Amino acid sequence: MTRRSCRRRPEVECRDCELFGICQVAGLGSIDDSLLESVVSRRWPVARGDKLVTPGTPFRGIFAVKSGAFRTLSRIGQRVRVTDFHFPGELIGLETIESGGYIHTVEALDDSSICELGFSRLHRLGPRLVQFQEQLIQAMSRRMRHDQQLCALARAQNSEQRLAAFLYSVATRLNPDQRPAAEFRLPMLREDIADYLGLAIETISRLLTQFSQRGILHLRGRNAQIHDFKSLRALAGLDVLVEPAGIEPPAEPC
Amino acid sequence: MTRRSCRRRPEVECRDCELFGICQVAGLGSIDDSLLESVVSRRWPVARGDKLVTPGTPFRGIFAVKSGAFRTLSRIGQRVRVTDFHFPGELIGLETIESGGYIHTVEALDDSSICELGFSRLHRLGPRLVQFQEQLIQAMSRRMRHDQQLCALARAQNSEQRLAAFLYSVATRLNPDQRPAAEFRLPMLREDIADYLGLAIETISRLLTQFSQRGILHLRGRNAQIHDFKSLRALAGLDVLVEPAGIEPPAEPC
DNA sequence: CGACGATTTGACTCTTCTCAATAAATGTGG
DNA sequence: CCACATTTATTGAGAAGAGTCAAATCGTCG
């Protein structure tokens, strides 16, 4: 295996993938491996810049990012904007199950690889279909909660909080153990971040310089280093006053 | 039937409710009505200001708004903010299926009523469980798509677009036929809107005055009238250039 | 090395927020 | 049903935040 300079292409382990519960139902790692193979297409490579789906692509199944990163482009009125990012272990296409066709574009930000779970082959699961659906419902529910939190942060009052929350989120999602990485590679352009957060690219740049000067984090090109997690969390509005353990909060709003 | 002045309390029809597909599986309107009754608690009244769930409430099932309106309050860091609204026909609690417990507060903005679908009684569906789950997956998928669109609009560059998109969304969601109503009652305070959109309450107020002066819409207290749908859609960034019918868009980003 | 795209920085403008003061609504009790 | 108290909404003025345009660096890749 060749690798260029320090660029590894980390691949998420199946047990850290949102598809895992679903793959397990299909017999992942058991004697029933052939069942899994017949439902999930594993590790399909996607080159940087390639489009996984475009508007009009019919829904055939959901994808799980195995390595790399993707961005979703959506048409908002006359303008095309970045509306989502997808990192290893995350599912793509959940919002399209019902409608039957994609309305946006999903594009690889890096050379990536994905697994695909074909919905047309689900009948092969036979009596395991109920368990499969259960797993899917749980994955969707988890995702909805996550999206809601992210969405709330993206609506935050000021740009500083939005960017801090975004970086914290990316640092966390790029790390298999779901804790923010101290060092990582930002797969998207400043322009993508600006677009996604609804800010000007110059604002992003200035904030990054400022964060760096304050010793919170440092971005050199695409290489990111977080120096002060506590401050970053605070900026992002993620810090919660530590409640005395064991004491239930009263039945008051949040 | 008595009604106070012009204030009806419109109740959504079952066929316009997101729970409908699910209720149908359980035999809504068929000879099997008793099955439905044993799974869905129908038309439970909730007084204005009452909390449907608070942080720590265990998940027992999902709710469907039958009449009235609700808001979701979430703790974002130190601050409690409005993160969602729920109108007749919409489901509440989908993001909590997986985690087992609510982390936010859902509060009635008006006297309202809801149906509850208890998850502990699902086994009574027997062999229909597969169809039930199918319906639930579709409802969740639909909701994810909707939330994504809303979220993208809420991140819009300027306050004018955000507010226009919000009002258009509310006008649509308050109307059973899913087209924006020309006249409706805004169930939430300006403060709720400001909080939800991440804007100052004064900004909301000024924009509303401006919209009114431009003849787009008029808000007197809580009574809203939309005069110019086209302009409102344009402001909200919802206008799409009409593509020549029958011609597929090229495989380009959106 | 050199060219091109990406990012940063500066100067200036426009938008949105904050604080303060009114003005409407809404609710309450007589 | 009216007067008063309270909450909610609007308006104004000045300050801070974020956007725009233009120019200068930085980085990457052939």
What distinguishing features does this structure have?
homodimer; 254 residues; alpha+beta; four-stranded antiparallel beta sheet; 7 helices; 11 strands; 32% helix; globular; disordered N terminus; disordered C terminus; DNA-binding
Structural summary, described in words:
2 copies of one chain form a homodimer. The first copy, chain A, is α+β, with helices and mostly antiparallel strands and 254 residues long. In chain A, 32% of the residues lie in helices and 22% in strands. The first copy, chain A, is built from 7 helices and 11 strands. Chain A has helices at residues 20-25, 33-39, 129-154, 159-173, 190-197, 201-213, 229-235; strands at 40-46, 51-53, 61-67, 70-76, 79-86, 91-92, 105-108, 112-118, 183-185, 217-220, 223-226. In chain A, the strands form 3 sheets. The first copy, chain A, has a 4-stranded antiparallel β-sheet. Chain A has a 4-stranded antiparallel β-sheet with strand order 2-7-4-5. Chain A has a 3-stranded antiparallel β-sheet with strand order 9-11-10. In chain A, a hairpin with a 2-residue loop joins strand 10 and strand 11 (223-226). In chain A, helix 5 (190-197) packs across helix 6 (201-213). The longest helix of chain A is centred in the middle third of the chain and has 26 residues, at 129-154. Chain A is globular, with a radius of gyration of 20 Å. Chain A starts with 19 loop residues before the first helix and ends in a 19-residue tail after the last helix. The model of chain A is unreliable at 1-8 and 243-254 (pLDDT under 50). The interface between A and B is large, with 65 and 64 residues. Chain B binds a DNA duplex (30 and 30 nucleotides) through residues 157-159, 189-191, 199-206, 208-209, 221-222.
